[in-house]
Amino acid sequence: MINYNIEVGEKKKNPKKEIIILSIIAIILVSVAIFGGIELAKIRNLTKNSINPENTEYAQGGQENNSQSDKESNLQSTNEQVNTNQTESSGQAQNNGNTENNEQNQNNQNGISNSNQQAQNNSAEQNNQEANSSKLTAKQIEAIDKIYNSKEKVAYLTFDDGPSSTVTPKILDTLKKENIKATFFVLGTMAKSNASLLKRERAEGHYIANHGYSHVYSKVYENENKPLEEYEKTNKIIAEALGDSTYQANVFRFPGGSVGGYYDKIKTKAKKVLKANGIAYLDWNCLTNDAAGSDTKEEIMQSLKSTCKGKNSIVVLMHDAPNKKLTAQTLPDVIAYLRSQGYSFKNLYDII
After folding, report:
1. Full residue range of the structural domain in which residue 134 is found
2. Assuming Cys at both sites, which of 80, 85, 236, 280 could form a disulfide with 144, CB separation 3.0 to 4.6 Å?
3. Together in a domain, 27 and 156
4. Structure letter (DSSP) for residue 170
5. What does the DSSP 8-state code read for residue 133?
């Protein structure tokens, strides 16, 4: 007890040392708090500038909120329209000396069939060229606006951000094999170096639409007139690539979708500018998330199934950018699933 009292007494006689120590601790704590507050403010400001909700092409792409009131439950039975193979006339060749004649006749018929098919392709391409040679009428723009209101089950396959030499040819091969016409929303920066792919897309009956030039939001949405400028710049590049000075894409897809996000007010004004110039715009109401996190075939298919559920007319968002090889690999599965759900396939030529 004596020693304890002496120690306490000694401490009370020396308060300066404790005051100095406490002061130092207090200064350190205040400094840490101030520094931490500054760093937190920097982080918040950086996050606000860099993480823009427009940087992901979010699920329903704009027009979802005004598109599907048609949740009819009368799903058509799985009417799989897989390639119907022509049945060969089965008669086994009888050894009567007519085999060569039969083969010759078949070759002649095949030649006629190929000629007819080529004539049909040429006629379709000519019709498509005529469809892209003038601005849209108000009625045609309205038809694009009402694309989601079909009573039939229709799927419009759309591909953004191409064409690319690594992915687009594989997608075109699949579409040709499945006899499906799609719609390609072309970027001006990609169209410059891929003229041959644009020509192939058109020759095979696909619709070449317009996705702007840069895909850089700060440029595209600088003001309400910039989307039109990006459209016109890209339209000129496509026309030069196709060797068709009369070409008009007529349909624009806003990068990131036409509704919502940081630039929503500018988009609202830009849509009026486009329509005043005879240009429609189109979003999507179904997607594979191939540009927003789907890294496997299973994830792509799950996203497709969940976003097309309960919808008759679907506009499916996919991409044919250089790094979307998985999209090309999964496309046959996408087509097979939609067919199994009773969907037929169309592109924008079927509307305008």
Report:
1. 119-350
2. 280
3. no
4. H
5. S
Residue 67 lies in a domain: no
**Per-residue pLDDT tens digits for 199-223:** 999 999 999 999 999 999 999 999 9
Q: Which residues are catalytic?
A: 160, 319
| pLDDT for the residue numbered 116 | 53
Residues 144-160, mean pLDDT to the nearest whole number = 97
Per-residue pLDDT at 132: 80
- Strand extents, DSSP E, the chain: 154-162, 183-186, 207-210, 251-252, 280-281, 286-287, 313-319, 344-346
User: Whole-angstrom Cα distance, residue 210 to residue 230?
Assistant: 9
Q: Quick one: pLDDT at residue 27?
A: 80
Model pLDDT for residues 109-118, shown as the tens digit of each residue: 545 444 555 5
Task: Give dist(CA 173, CA 194) in Å, integer.
Answer: 16
pLDDT band at 51 (very low <50, low <70, confident <90, very high): very low
With beta carbons less than 8 A apart as the criterion, state whether 351 and 207 touch: no
Same domain, 28 and 124: no
Query: Which of 187, 121, 174, 183 lies closest to 155 in space, CA to CA?
Result: 183
Instruction: Say if residues 280 and 274 touch (Cβ distance below 8 Å).
Output: yes
Does residue 170 belong to any structural domain of this protein?
A: yes
Judge contact between 188 and 234, C-beta under 8 A.
Answer: yes
Is 43 within a domain?
A: no
More confidently predicted of 14 and 10:
14
pLDDT at 254 over 50: yes
**CATH code, 340:** 3.20.20.370
CA–CA dist 38, 43 (Å, integer): 9
Helix (H, G, I), strand (E, B) or coil at 163: coil
> Would the pLDDT of 99 be above 50?
no
Asked if residue 234 and residue 334 are part of one domain, the reply reads yes
In sequence order, the 6+-apart residues with CB closer than 8 A to the CB of 277 are 135, 228
Residue 182, domain member (yes or no): yes
Residues 125 and 234 grouped into a single domain: yes
The number of folded domains in the chain is 2
- How far, in Å, CA of 143 to CA of 351, rounded? 7
Residue 230 main-chain phi, psi, to 5 deg: -65, -40
Cα–Cα distance for residue pair 193/112, rounded to 1 Å? 37
CA–CA separation, 284 and 289 (whole Å): 12
